[in-house]
Amino acid sequence: MNLIETDGERLLGAVRTLLAAKGVASTAEIQERIAITDKASPGQGARMVARAWTDPDYRALMMEDGSKAAEMLGIPMRGMPPLGVLENAPGVHHLVVCTLCSCYPRAVLGYPPYWFKSAGYRSRAVRDPRGLIAEWGTVLPETTKITVVDSTADYRWMVLPERPAGTAGWSEEKLAAIVREGDMIGVTVSKV
Amino acid sequence: MTGFAPGTRVRVRNDWPETRGPVHIRTPHYLRGRSGTVVRSLGAFKNPEDLAFARAAPPKALYHVRFDPYEIWSEGQPTDALLVEIFEQWLEPA
Questions:
Q1: Do A97 and A16 share a structural domain?
Q2: Same domain, A89 and A172
Q3: Nearest CA in chain B to A65
Q4: What is the pLDDT along chain A (192 residues), one digit of tens a residue?
Q5: What is the ipTM of this complex?
Q6: Is A123 a catalytic residue?
Q7: A-chain residues within 8 Å CB-CB of B26?
Q8: Cα angle, residue A159 at apex, residues A158 and A163 outer, rounded to 5°
Q9: Chain A partners of B69 at a C-beta cutoff of 8 Å?
């Protein structure tokens, strides 16, 4: 099948032509947005986490204004919902879910993993977070307070995980490489 | 609208507009009629309930509200918490 000739492709072409003709979005703007979307991945969020682990001023900015902190590392946030950051600490854990659908901090984490949108994840995260994350092998002490953040409206939330032991003196690049997507959702914790 | 200060006890309206016709709402079912505590104001955003239908969408205040999951499910650990964004039109003083 020739993809260029499918109905979907023709419809997309027509919509793009209309958007440009009505001055809603130019071809260049659409190309720019596609490039930004393609570049978004958990690696972006991991760079923020690694910077926060090594730079207290950056950590403070990240907690105050996640969008600004992202932009400081060259992550484009224009037109994106504001980014909030949830700080894990000893005895404090956060888990992000969107029970209504799929709100996700795409600018800094890219496309959500398939399970993030599943009915199972969405319903269990708010009701049995401990049982749910145990399936990722994440078992927290009973005394740890888990805050489940149901992200359903105009903010997007990412978790700032705790820096694992055994990483003293590591470079930002080396630290960023151990930060996983799940650590920034809260289903896992960062480890060496 | 004077707003809700952090620490204010609020109740999510026990309203089910989806039973009356097509709607777009950002208030989870499991919180309708439940009480929680305002943690912070998150600013104001164009009302998604109007945006979804291409209507004029005046900004509405958005709050981060903390709920006790044990009160909702009668299971889990009492130390845990649920933190959810709720628009002002869904909140009333508890």
A1: no
A2: yes
A3: B42
A4: 566 677 888 888 899 999 999 999 998 999 988 888 888 999 999 999 999 999 999 999 999 999 999 999 999 998 899 999 999 999 999 999 999 988 999 999 999 999 999 999 999 999 999 999 999 999 999 999 999 999 999 999 999 999 999 999 999 999 999 999 999 999 999 999
A5: 0.95
A6: no
A7: 100, 152-153
A8: 140
A9: 126-127, 148
